[in-house]
């Protein structure tokens, strides 16, 4: 049975992708790591791994039932994880809505046989891969903000030596009262 490598994530607006690519080029030396393509910049909410079409459909049905308000996301933190070789951009204080959405998607994925890391959720956007040597991080003071109004299910596809992330489905977050509770049957 054919499977797909899937994950739930937040897309970045196109103009923000381009701004981050320019900032990354100005901030990190060329040999610091392998840059992630602008179109592949995203914030993973729940990694699913290799998933059958049936499980994908069940998870998409559950995702379509999520009722949660949108939220603002501030990107104002950066770090380097030497062991996996990742330089990342994230948030100093993750918004409640982001943590709730990721928690719900990860729990649904686990209930449907998709292994979830025991590590706590650390919202981040991978900027560089294969960054195994020490990397000088930029001084504080950088900041981007965007409104998160939807989340998506992506397929990770590898072809001709390149990985491409393709959105399979997207769901809106509501514009209702930000104090409304998250719910999904």
TrEMBL record:
Matches recorded under SUPFAM superfamilies: LigT-like
Name of the top EC class for this enzyme: hydrolase
Catalysed reactions listed for this entry: a 3'-end 2',3'-cyclophospho-ribonucleotide-RNA + H2O = a 3'-end 2'-phospho-ribonucleotide-RNA + H(+)
Top-level taxon in the UniProt lineage: Bacteria
Alphabetical list of Gene3D superfamilies matching this protein: Cyclic phosphodiesterase (3.90.1140.10)
Pfam families (alphabetical): 2_5_RNA_ligase2
EC number(s) reported in the record: 3.1.4.58
HAMAP family: RNA_CPDase (MF_01940)
Function summary: Hydrolyzes RNA 2',3'-cyclic phosphodiester to an RNA 2'-phosphomonoester.
UniProt family annotation: Belongs to the 2H phosphoesterase superfamily. ThpR family.
Name of the protein this chain belongs to: RNA 2',3'-cyclic phosphodiesterase
Organism in which the protein naturally occurs: Pantoea deleyi
């Amino acid at each position: 049975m054919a499977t797909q490598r899937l994950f739930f994530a937040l897309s970045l607006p196109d103009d923000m992708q381009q701004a981050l690519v320019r900032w990354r080029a100005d901030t990190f030396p060329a040999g610091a790591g392998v840059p992630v393509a602008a179109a592949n910049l995203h914030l993973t909410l729940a990694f699913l791994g290799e998933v059958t079409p049936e499980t994908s459909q069940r998870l998409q049905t559950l995702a379509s039932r999520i009722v949660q308000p949108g939220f603002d996301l501030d990107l104002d933190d950066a770090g380097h994880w030497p062991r996996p070789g990742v330089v990342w951009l994230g948030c100093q204080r993750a918004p409640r809505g982001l943590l709730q959405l990721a928690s719900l998607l990860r729990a649904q994925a686990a209930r449907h046989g998709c292994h979830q890391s025991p590590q706590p959720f650390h919202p981040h956007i991978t900027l560089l891969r294969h960054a195994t040597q020490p990397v000088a991080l930029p001084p504080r003071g950088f900041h981007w903000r965007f409104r998160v109004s939807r989340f998506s299910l992506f397929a990770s596809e590898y072809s001709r030596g390149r990985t491409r992330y393709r959105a399979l489905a997207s769901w809106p977050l509501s514009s209702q009262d930000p104090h409304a509770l998250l719910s999904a049957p």
